[in-house]
């Protein structure tokens, strides 16, 4: 059934960030407590439209596997951050990953830095990235976004465990999309795997 057919039974939870929110589905009745338990969630944009690939991915690997609603929401939240990063960098993520040249190593490095920010710093980075640029682009840091324009003391990071978890979710998502790519360009696939491997090396080591 299409995800949109469930609009009547979902509710928005948590504070939505710039361009996504997570909506929960009510699950089956718990006969012992006579209340509904949320058991499914979807990622939607700021107009309430579901993101296609993130929701397909989570449905296959988390919902059908019977994972908890908190686990499902954690993955969706991370993928929402991934799409926010792409939007701030002017990247059509679905088109690039499914039909295009995939993300490159420089973009993956930038993504790893972005995904390690805490929520407040992430919002600041997005705000800076969305401001009109008054000067010419002369170096990679300007292409990457607002880190150069943000005072170091204003940037705060999440803990290493959280960053590592987010990055592993994204890697699993990228591996999933590699299987869904259209066309048979072996060079692109090889370059994409190089990018994924480079991204893996940036995962923090945690005990």
> Into which percent range does the helicity of residues fall?
40-55%
What spatial order of strands do you see in the largest sheet?
A: 1-2-3
Task: Report the span from N to C terminus.
Answer: 42 Å
Helices and strands: which structural class? alpha+beta
Q: Oligomeric status of the shown chains?
A: single chain
Secondary-structure element string? EEEHHHHHHHH
Unreliable spans are: 1-18, 135-153
- What does the overall shape look like? globular
What integer value in Å does the Rg equal?
Answer: 18 Å
Hey, roughly how much beta strand do the residues contain?
5-15%
Question: How many β-strand runs?
Answer: 3
Task: Tell me what the structure shows.
By secondary structure, the protein is of the alpha+beta class. α1 runs antiparallel to α2. It has a three-stranded antiparallel sheet. The longest helix has 21 residues. The N terminus is likely disordered. It has eight helices and three strands, in the order βββαααααααα. A hairpin with a 6-residue loop joins β1 and β2.
Describe how the helices and strands are arranged.
Layout (H helix, E strand, L loop, with lengths): L9 E4 L6 E11 L4 E11 L6 H12 L5 H20 L4 H6 L6 H11 L3 H11 L10 H5 L15 H21 L5 H16 L6
Helix pairs in contact: 1-2, 2-7, 4-8, 7-8
């Amino acid at each position: 059934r299409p995800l949109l057919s469930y609009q009547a039974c979902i509710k928005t939870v948590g504070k939505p960030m710039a361009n996504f929110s997570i909506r929960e589905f009510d699950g089956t009745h718990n006969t012992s407590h006579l209340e509904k338990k949320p058991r499914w969630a979807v990622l939607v944009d700021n107009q309430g439209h579901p993101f296609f690939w993130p929701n397909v991915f989570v449905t296959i690997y988390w919902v059908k596997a019977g994972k908890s609603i908190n686990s499902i929401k954690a993955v969706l939240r991370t993928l929402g951050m991934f799409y926010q990063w792409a939007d701030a960098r002017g990247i059509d993520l679905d088109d690039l990953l499914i039909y295009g040249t995939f993300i490159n190593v420089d973009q993956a490095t930038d993504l790893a830095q972005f995904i390690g920010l805490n929520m407040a710093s992430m919002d600041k980075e997005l705000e800076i990235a969305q401001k009109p640029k008054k000067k010419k682009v002369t170096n990679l840091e300007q292409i990457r976004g607002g880190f150069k324009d943000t005072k170091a003391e204003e940037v705060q990071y999440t803990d290493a465990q959280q960053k590592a978890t987010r990055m592993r979710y994204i890697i699993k998502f990228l591996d999933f999309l590699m299987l869904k790519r259209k066309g048979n360009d072996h060079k692109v696939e090889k370059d994409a795997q190089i990018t994924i491997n480079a991204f893996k090396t940036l995962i923090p080591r945690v005990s």
